[in-house]
Amino acid sequence: MKKVNQTYMRELFGSIAAYAVLLIGSIWLVNNYLEASPLRFVVVLIPMIPVLFTIRAMVNYLTHTDEMEREIQLKSLAISLAGTAFITFTYGFLEGVGLPKISMFFVWPIIAIIWIAARFWLNRQYQ
Fold it and tell me: Which residue among 73, 74, 82, 125 is least crowded, i.e. fewest CB within 10 A of its CB?
C-alpha cells in the first residue's frame, strides 16, 4: 500500500473513531444530565470537531495522491454532488405537494452512496 494511502487511512479512521466516541459521550451527557440545559446545544456539536480532521485527511489525500486517482476522486465527487442535488431538489418539490419532510441527516448517506457507486464505475472505466 502506498504511503499516501496508509497516511489517509490512519487519519481517516482515527478521526472517525474520535467522532464515534464523542458522539456516544455527547448523547449520553445530554440524555442523562443536560436535557433542559442550554449547554446541550454546545455538547451535541462536540462530535463535529473530529469531522474537521476527516475533511483535512481527505484534502491531504487528494493533494498528495497521483493524478489518475485525483481525477477519479474528483469526478466521483462531481457526480455525487450533481446526483445529490437532483435527488434533494426533486424531493423538495414533492414535499411542497404533500410528501413528508425528511431530516437533513439523509443527505450525507445519499452523497456517500452516489460517491461510492461513481468511484467503482469510474475505476472500471479507467482500467
Answer: 125
Cα(83)–Cα(92) distance, integer angstroms: 14
CA nearest 14: which of 56, 46, 43?
Answer: 56
pLDDT, residue 127, reads 86
In the chain, what is the straight-line distance between the N-terminal and C-terminal CA atoms, in Å? Answer: 19
* pTM, full prediction: 0.84
Q: Which amino acid is at 33?
A: Y
Q: For residue 21, is it left (φ>0), alpha (ψ between -120 and 50) or beta? A: alpha
User: What are the structural domain ranges in the chain?
Assistant: 1-65, 66-127
Percentage of residues in the chain with pLDDT exceeding 90? 97
Of 77, 67, 63, 72, the C-alpha closest to 8 is 63
The answer to whether the CB of 8 falls within 8 A of the CB of 61 is yes
